[in-house]
Amino acid sequence: MGPEEFTHYVRSGRSMLRCGYTTGTCAALAAEGAARLLLTGRVPDTVSLTTPKGIEVSVRLADAELLEAGRSARCGVRKDAGDDYDITNGMLVCSTVRRSAVPGIHIDGGEGVGRVTKPGLDQPVGAAAINRAPRRMIQEQVEKACGELGYGGGLEVTVSIPGGAEAAARTFNPVLGVEGGLSILGTSGIVEPMSEQAIVDTIALQQRQAAAEGTGRLILTPGNYGEDFLRSGGLDGLGVPVVKCSNFLGEALDIAATEGFRQVLLVGHIGKLVKVAGGVMNTHSRYADCRTELFCAHAALCGAGRELCRTLMDAATTDACVELLDRAGLREQVMDSLLSAIQLHLERWAAGAYDIGAVIFSNVYGLLGRTGRAKEILERWN
Q1: Which burial class, exposed, middle or buried, applies to 5 when counting CB atoms under 10 A from its CB (0-12, 13-18, 19+)?
Q2: Residue 24 in contact with residue 186, Cβ under 8 Å?
Q3: Strands 263-269 and 355-362
Q4: Tens digit of pLDDT for each residue in 114-124?
Q5: Which of 11, 73, 335, 375 makes an SS bond possible with 37, Cβ 3.0 to 4.6 Å?
Q6: Beta strands 217-221 and 263-269: pairing type?
Q7: How far apart are the C-alpha atoms of 160 and 141, rounded to whole Å?
Q8: Three-state DSSP class for residue 310
Q9: pLDDT tens digit string along 164-209?
Q10: DSSP state of 104
Q11: Using CA atoms, how far apart are residues 355 and 345, in angstroms rounded to an integer?
Q12: Measured CA angle at 123 (ends 317, 108), to 5 deg
């Protein structure tokens, strides 16, 4: 693969769509380039990394410059989102690396990178909005360069995105509690594009394949977090096929009825599945983002006072909501109330076509609860 264009593709129905790479991948590649430029005085021809998904990305640097009379260096990588619509597509993601008297590699955000202003996000309040996986990728790439070039001192890495503050104003960042710029995101390092209809078609195909196994059993999960939770809890060892449904829960449930499944278990992160308590069956934020409203309403039903309800409404994430409920001693009551509402809406949607239950978890708190029907289904499967 040449560095001019990233040429990894995924199949979407009858089409092949070109993948891209995340802002985190860009920042890590730029950081490696800047470290090499700082330590050698030369701009590398290309920089490469293997993403957490195991896919190699190799690029030419779009910008490279020695600064402060050679005491620091800045390099940039142009974001390539492939065939996926992304507000950051084509933007320059830069990393500036300078020597430091403090041992180790220290990562921070600069121009165009947001700061966390609310608790409950991936990074603590006050930190640059550079998530854990990108931070790890940046550190690994800089460590690789230092190891190859024999440098054992400290380095400071500052990630910046020119124009990032303006672009962030058109995202959910200000609502979520990230101010002043964009977030450096990504867990796999790769952007996999899919049109909505292509996703639904893929869900239908995968369910058709699962139905062919003849067990009549199915686990639906929105994405990678759900798959990780299934593995960690041993649920992937039940011999039940697992199909990812992305945000298209309603379509996935309809397909399950068409394919004749008898028992369906929905396993998902609280950030997605809490919306089902309000009857929302497409969980993408562009359609509905009523997470904190639902926490607030069910907390009020369980006796929460006005101050707690107001704080829940202002929370940045569902994990932050759970933390607030823990402090108030209301977590179990509110989760039971939400699970009852989720079960009600799932059964209404299934309309008797199959038994269905839900399991909800958090990456921070682990298992948060199972509906009564989910417990029955799991007992049968075990």
Answers
A1: exposed
A2: yes
A3: parallel
A4: 999 987 778 99
A5: 73
A6: parallel
A7: 17
A8: helix
A9: 999 999 887 887 789 999 999 878 898 877 667 768 888 898 999 8
A10: S
A11: 13
A12: 145
